[in-house]
Amino acid sequence: MGTGLTVQFLGSGDAFGSGGRLQACILLRSEGGELLLDCGASSLIAMKRAGVDPSSIGYVALSHLHGDHFGGVPFLVLDGQFSRRERPLVVAGPRGVEQRVLAAMEVLFPGSSSVARRFPVEFVEFDPARPTRLGAAEIAAYEVDHASGAPALALRVAMGGRVVAYSGDTAWTPTLVEAARGSDLFICEAYFAEKRVPFHLDLATLRTHLGEIGCRRVVLTHMGPDVLALDEPGLERAHDGLTIDL
CATH classification of 6-236 is 3.40.120.10, yes or no? Predict the structure, then answer.
């Protein structure tokens, strides 16, 4: 099997749509298959806008259980039901992922969590003690600092001979060094430029730790208005539709 990985930002925004960006939804493609990193509430729109068939998505890896990161899963399942999908769907996430997704389905579409479908939906819980295999990807999970009613995770994805690290949402924590060290690409939130708030990372703090991380490339995501407004050469920021070949 050849090596190489394509990273496509279908949605790169925060919970509030800052800059008109859709919520977290990042598609990884290699010769071996596809993986969706996070599936925020607007993800079905993002996929269809980009010409991505939702039924082609076999694996979803969720960093944490906030609506802008997992709220699109009920819509993904419902779309599969009405498009006569047959391919199994595997949704992996923190402890409690199955219960949270099923509860969300019942709130949004009562009865949808138990209806008969042509395709199975399987839930997998990440275990920080050992990597998880999802199709062509091997994923290591690291607990981070973000209150979401369940453990929040940074994810390190080995796929197509490349390594992509993803912070999810978190304040600075040393586990980000473990998750992202030496990676080909570190996708990292930068909610504010300098302002420090609980449970989120600012760009100034991130910069003080990049030497420890030693990754090859950093792309910022989940940005608030002040980071989006920065006029700084060399600052790589995600936008909806950005595609990176590694």
Answer: no
